[in-house]
Design goal:
This protein has helices spanning 31-35, 37-44, 68-84, 97-105, 148-160, 181-196, 203-209, 224-227; strands at 8-13, 50-54, 90-95, 111-117, 134-140, 164-170, 221-223, 228-230, 237-239. It is an alpha/beta fold. The strands form two sheets. It has a seven-stranded parallel beta sheet, sandwiched between helices. The chain has a two-stranded antiparallel ribbon with strand order 8-9. α4 links the parallel β3 (90-95) and β4. α3 packs across α4. The radius of gyration is 17 Å and the shape is globular. The mean pLDDT is 91.
């Protein structure tokens, strides 16, 4: 029996280094790739005929203007387009350097949205390619590797460029997403489900995405503990009423 084509896809992009021209090590030795395995499982838990696959990098680092992971992401999207056609909705799910690559590649015709975890968002990175996309960035307030302030700034710049953006702060988390791991995984499931249209986004996230281009960065920033309330089902969040 012929396998049904996927109805949607999630491309997972793991983290890396600022520089490094050697290829990532194989299998479990690739710690950034191993770190994303629970998130890939969370994406598969969205249900439906969704293809979840990890982008393969040719190099461990971003490597300045060469931006190797960005080109790897575009190549993976092009291959998916050739295989599944022009109408396949894709969400890019990236961590750290992988989130930077996802944001840079979001202008690809297949991409509907980006979920960036602890993203690396240098101030000079472009945002015009994000126009018309849904961008949700999740960052710990205690991250010491990448800047939550830079992430918040990017959401505002991208909104002014025509993107629909939101930032969710995970208090007490860390860059590796080990602290409060279940919260990271559950939130990711809900965000990917919502952006693919196979479920509803948490209400406050949808409201943030609908903000006008002139909204301040703080208006589109949510607190996981104050604004989002885990519902009875995995991956589902409801609005939490602040006291």
């Amino acid at each position: 029996m012929a396998q049904r084509p996927p109805s949607a896809a999630v491309l997972v992009l793991h983290g890396g280094r600022e520089t490094g021209t050697e290829p990532p090590p194989p299998g479990l030795l690739n710690l950034p790739g191993t770190r994303m395995r629970p998130f890939a499982r969370a994406a598969r838990a969205t249900g439906g005929n969704v293809l979840v696959t990890q982008v393969r990098y040719g190099h461990r680092g971003w490597n300045g203007d060469r931006a190797h992971p960005f080109h790897d992401a575009v190549a993976a999207l092009d291959a998916l387009r050739e295989e599944a056609g022009d109408e396949l909705p894709v969400v890019l799910l990236g961590h750290s350097m992988g989130a930077r690559a996802a944001l840079r590649a979001a202008g690809h015709p297949l991409v509907r949205g980006v979920v960036g975890l602890a993203p690396w968002c240098p101030p000079g990175d472009p945002v015009t390619q994000l126009a018309g996309r849904d961008i949700v960035l999740v960052h710990s307030n205690r991250d010491r590797m990448t800047s939550p302030q830079a992430t918040q700034s990017l959401t505002a710049r991208a909104r002014r460029a025509g993107a629909r953006t939101c930032m969710v702060t995970v208090r007490g988390g860390d860059h590796a997403m080990i602290r409060r791991a279940s919260a990271w995984h559950r939130l990711t499931t809900g965000l990917v489900t919502g952006l693919l249209g196979s479920g509803s986004l948490p209400g406050p996230v949808g409201e943030a995405l609908a903000l006008p281009p002139t909204a301040e960065a703080t208006e589109g920033t949510l607190d996981l503990d104050l604004d989002l309330d885990p519902g009875p089902d995995p991956g589902r969040f409801r609005a939490r009423t602040r006291a």
